[in-house]
Amino acid sequence: MANTWLVFDVSYLAYRALYTTGDLSHEGVNTGVVFGMFQTVMGLQDRFGTDQIAWCFDAGHQKRSQVWSKYKTNRKPSKDDDELRQARGLLREQLGLLRTKYLPFVGFPNVFWQDGYEADDMIASVCEHMPRGDLAVIVSSDHDMYQLLSNDRVIMFNPQKKQTITQDSFGREHGIDPTLWADVLAIAGCVGDGVEGVKGVGEVTAVKFLTGRLKSTTKAFVSITRNEDAWRRNLFLTRLPFRGTRKCELKSAQFDSSLWDKLLERLGMKSLIGRNRHGRDSET
Q1: Fold for the domain defined by 4-170+242-271
Q2: Is the pLDDT of residue 129 over 70?
Q3: Per-residue pLDDT averaged across 175-180, rounded?
Q4: Is the Cβ–Cβ distance between 154 and 134 less than 8 Å?
Q5: What stretch(es) of the chain map to CATH 1.10.150.20?
Q6: Which residues of 197-222 are buried (b: 16+ CB within 10 A; e: fewer)?
Q7: Neighbour-count burial for 240-278, b at 16+ CB within 10 Å, e otherwise
Q8: pTM higher than 0.90, yes or no?
Q9: How far is residue 54's CA from residue 123's CA, in Å, rounded to a whole number?
Q10: What is the CATH number of domain 178-238?
Q11: CA gyration radius for the chain?
């Protein structure tokens, strides 16, 4: 029987929760980020009717930094940005507990991370090695993962916008096949990741170039062709998964919803108890 998998970009969910319920704690333990994440998770289990979940964690970006020393250096907090440092510390603390204690307690078998690699790489590997006939629903707003879209295998869902993105809807909006999206990012660059593309060329122009709709007489066309070696090197950064990413194979599991409730009670999340109705005890 085919499965629908919720494939979570855990950092994305955590940052969303940080700014909504991040201040919550229970008996001296910070719980707000995890609480907000669990709210989202349970809602998505109901929406997509599944208890099959893959949790994909960031574990640094050293591998990409070895290729491009400026990779994500623009995201480092300044010496005076104490608020950002505290927020990141709060995230690290709760995500560490989520990965090493909370998820193992509930019994999730699909918890993926790899030192020096990002959640994007884990997600790409999950999608690449997913059982035939199964569907992955990537829960994230990260545009980098558009390249993974495939109508019969991979879609994306943005909880903030309540928006589902498929290969077809992406193609209609952007005018290019998702398989070429990594090339678009390599040419146009990515400010958020510190990837330097061809100067003066944005995503729309990159799409026109890759689809043969950019006139060879334009300044942009000349710039892209003259800098082909540089943007092709960028593909090492933009294409998912990054080289050396481990094989992430999914294991199907049926969960006892009472374990969810025990964990929620322990963490003081009483408002969520009984909401998970996809475990094997859900009818009792």
Answers
A1: Rossmann fold (3.40.50)
A2: yes
A3: 97
A4: no
A5: 178-238
A6: bbeebebebbbbbbeeebeeeeebbe
A7: bbbeebeebebeeeebebebbbebbeebebeebeebbeb
A8: yes
A9: 8
A10: 1.10.150.20
A11: 20
281 or 44: which leads in pLDDT = 44
Specify whether the CB–CB gap between 264 and 26 falls below 8 A.
no
Of 277, 245, 16, 12, residue with least CA distance to 138: 12
Cα-Cα end-to-end distance for the chain: 24
Q: How many CB atoms lie within 10 A of CB 167?
A: 19
| Parts of the chain belonging to CATH 3.40.50.1010 | 4-170+242-271
Interval 195-241: pLDDT, tens: 899 999 999 999 999 999 999 999 999 999 999 999 999 999 999 99
Instruction: Kindly list the distances between the CA atom of residue 221 and the CA atoms of 9, 195, 199, 210, 228, in Å, as whole numbers in the listed order.
Output: 35, 20, 12, 10, 11
Cα gap 256→221, rounded to integer Å: 57
**Cβ of 134: how many Cβ atoms within 10 Å?**
18
Size of the chain, expressed as the number of residues it contains: 284
Strands 154-158 and 163-165: antiparallel
